């Protein structure tokens, strides 16, 4: 709209010229104005691209802390990704809202996701349905309990199931969280994204 207004004012300035000279002057003016406008637009696009890339890298760190390291403590996540706790809360809520993480809430400084909820201890317990996974950090032991039956690491049913993954869209590179054997349509380009 502003561009059209500028062209209208420029056209008034060229009224005293002949028709061919006026068309040539307007064409030159339009090209120069477009080139001048292209510079700030390019700078803004570049800054946006860098910020988006940085945020995607940060989201990947959050995802790794939650799923690979079974970390649900917000202050520990903030410590690991070197961000303030308030920022971590905002980012994780954004990831839940955009379905990068499954639905969940943040309660008493802990992240509680559907399928992963904080147990009775603050040492990193996660509850998945009827299964309880107790991770004792620093002791290199993992106990799996299912229906009051304990398993050692070699015979756990959890090891046979695959965890959710963040997958890249082959069309545009957008990231989204997928469960095993799940396929979604990309929100940005509409292309199919499959769990691999």
Please tell me about this protein's structure.
- With 196 residues, this protein is of the alpha+beta class.
- Helices cover 42% and strands 22% of the residues.
- Among the domains are: 20-114, Arc Repressor Mutant, subunit A, CATH 1.10.10; 162-196.
- The chain has helices at 2-13, 19-68, 74-81, 85-97, and strands at residues 104-107, 110-113, 117-118, 125-128, 131-136, 141-146, 149-151, 165-168, 175-178, 183-185, 192-194.
- It has a five-stranded antiparallel β-sheet with strand order 3-4-5-6-7, with no helix packed on it.
- Helix 3 (74-81) packs across helix 4 (85-97).
- The two termini are 47 Å apart.
- The relative contact order is 0.07.
- It comes from Paenibacillus uliginis N3/975.
Structural class: alpha+beta
The total of beta strands comes to: 11
Helix content: 40-55%
How large is the share of residues in beta strands? 15-25%
Following the backbone from N to C, one meets helices and strands in this order, namely HHHHEEEEEEEEEEE
Measured distance between first and last alpha carbons: 47 Å
Uncertain stretches = 117-159
Number of helices: 4
CATH hierarchy class name of the domain at 20-114: Mainly Alpha
Tell me, briefly, the overall form: elongated
The CATH architecture category of the domain at 20-114 equals Orthogonal Bundle
Please tell me how large the radius of gyration is: 27 Å
């Amino acid at each position: 709209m502003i561009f059209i207004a500028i062209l209208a004012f420029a056209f008034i300035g060229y009224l005293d010229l002949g028709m061919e000279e006026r068309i040539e002057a307007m064409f030159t003016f339009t090209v120069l104005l477009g080139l001048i406008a292209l510079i700030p637009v390019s700078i803004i696009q570049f800054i946006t691209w860098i910020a988006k890339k940085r945020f995607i890298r940060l989201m990947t760190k959050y995802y790794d802390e939650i799923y690979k390291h079974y970390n649900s403590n917000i202050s520990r996540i903030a410590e690991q990704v070197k961000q303030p706790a308030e920022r971590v809360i905002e980012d994780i809520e954004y990831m839940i809202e955009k379905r990068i993480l499954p639905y969940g809430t943040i309660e008493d400084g802990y992240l509680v996701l559907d399928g992963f909820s904080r147990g009775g201890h603050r040492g990193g317990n996660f509850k998945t349905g009827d299964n309880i996974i107790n991770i004792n950090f620093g002791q290199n032991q993992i106990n799996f309990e299912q229906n009051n039956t304990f398993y050692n690491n070699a015979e756990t049913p959890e090891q046979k199931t695959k965890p959710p993954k963040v997958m890249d869209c082959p069309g545009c590179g957008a990231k989204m969280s997928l469960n095993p054997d799940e396929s979604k349509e990309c929100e940005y380009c509409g292309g199919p994204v499959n769990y691999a």
